[in-house]
Design goal:
heterodimer; A: six-stranded mixed sheet; about 0% helix; globular; B: about 0% helix
């Protein structure tokens, strides 16, 4: 069975500090992983996906199959990064989400 | 263009009543999904519709939950005899066809259901 684990429910960092959101997964096949973000009073939206290997809003995430991880990183957090972040794994069409991490970036 | 829309945005109902939640997907999106977001939990997959194929109902938590998609567009999620544990935000998403790959899912604003 597939499972996505986000061990941190809350993460608070200062503006300009690095931020890393952890995500671990269990999946028997070849995973396709995503990070979704939900800003205050906005709808859930895709932030990035591992197959595109791109940086979005300064965030990057690398799939580490050996450690079964897909951690999200940003070297310099901004106040506008405050949001709820969900790691998700795709099994064909279904998305399995982690419990989410609430990030607060303080000035 | 318009994104995924859901109605109502909020619904308060008494325990034991039936409720219907509506989702209008993005025009041209053949895949439609329902998820549930409960307090302190992640998003839980409920049901998936793809074109005229039989829906994947494997995520529905009980037989009190059902969903329809009429004309390949609008979908209705029905919860019968609501219980307090049904209180959650119900999210709808749509995407282009996914049989050959995983396309980005676009989410609606959700319906917040409160069962008193």
């Amino acid at each position: 069975a597939q499972r996505v684990t986000q061990p941190e429910k809350l993460l608070s960092v200062f503006k300009g500090a690095p931020v890393e959101l952890k995500c671990n997964y269990s999946y028997s096949g070849s995973p396709e992983l995503f990070w979704y973000v939900q800003y205050s009073r906005q709808r859930l939206q895709l932030l990035l996906r591992h197959i595109s290997r791109e940086s979005i809003k300064g965030f990057t995430a690398d799939l580490n199959k050996g450690e079964t991880s897909f951690h999200l990183k940003k070297p310099f957090a901004q106040e506008e990064d405050s949001a709820m972040y969900y790691c998700a794994l795709s099994n064909d069409y279904k998305l399995s989400f982690g419990a989410g991490t609430t990030v607060t970036v303080r000035a | 263009g318009a994104g995924v829309s859901q109605s109502p945005s909020n619904k308060v109902t008494e325990k034991g009543k039936d409720v219907e939640l509506r989702c209008d997907p993005i025009s041209g999106h053949t895949a439609l999904y329902w998820y549930r977001q409960s307090l302190g939990q992640g998003l839980e997959f409920l049901i998936y519709f793809q074109g005229n194929s039989a829906p994947d109902k494997s995520g529905l938590p009980s037989d009190r939950f059902s969903a329809e998609r009429t004309g390949g567009s609008v979908s209705t999620l029905t919860i019968q005899r609501t219980q307090q544990e049904d209180s959650a935000v119900y999210l709808c998403a749509s995407s282009l066809q996914t049989r050959t790959g995983t396309y980005e899912q676009y989410f609606g604003p959700g319906t917040r259901l409160t069962v008193t």
